[in-house]
Amino acid sequence: MAYNRHRGTARRAAAVACLAGAAACSAPTPERDAAAGDSAQVLPATAAATPAAAIAADTTLVTVYKTPTCGCCKAWVEHMRENGFRVVAIDTNDVTPVKERHGVRQDHASCHTATVGGYVVEGHVPAADVRRLLAERPAITGLAVPGMPMGSPGMEGPRSERYDVIAFTRGGHDRVYASH
Fold first, then answer.
1. Do residues 131 and 121 make contact, with C-beta atoms less than 8 angstroms apart?
2. Which of 35, 120, 145, 152 is in Cβ range 3.0-4.6 Å of 102 for a Cys bridge?
3. Hey, which bits of the chain come out as E strands?
């Protein structure tokens, strides 16, 4: 497949290690990322009165499921917050059941899974692509950046590589949504 050009054996191994909570993604000081109060935020009565307003108000809340020690997941959470999203991070030792529940196939897997506005966001998807997704509201399950490509949000480093953001459906239909 054309969009798999960034996946290599070492990167897949690192992603699997990260999914398992191994040291490959460990930060020196593990800490809980969930900001106090984010999950308890209440919509104003006027917004909650209409379903469309409630959906629009809730689209900037991102819920991220990640392992407690994954440094690149924490960096992606910060990327999303810096780009105006409210983020609740939920630490779990096994993200696989979350991926399965939300229809993320193994070939789309990365180290963390998020939900926002009724969509799934798998891996290091740039905030701008998530904003575009929420504005366009396509008939897809979500977006994925398979593996952990260098240069993607949360995977910044001394080099960058090209990668694609994949739009996917539970029915197995994939297409390139954006290229970076």
1. no
2. 120
3. 61-66, 86-91, 113-116, 119-123, 142-145, 164-168, 174-179
pLDDT in tens, 148-164: 999 999 999 999 999 99
Q: Which residue range(s) make up the domain with 56?
A: 2-179
Please indicate, yes or no, whether the overall pTM of this predicted structure exceeds 0.85: no
Strands annotated E in 9-118: 61-66, 86-91, 113-116
Residue 12 Rama label (left phi>0; alpha psi -120 to 50; beta): alpha
Split into its structural domains, the chain has a count of 1
Tell me the C-alpha to C-alpha distance, in Å, between residue 45 and each of 12, 55, 59, 86, 133.
46, 13, 17, 20, 27
Query: In this structure, are strands 174-179 and 164-168 parallel, antiparallel, or unpaired?
Result: antiparallel
Q: What is the pLDDT of residue 29?
A: 26
Percent of the chain with pLDDT over 70: 67
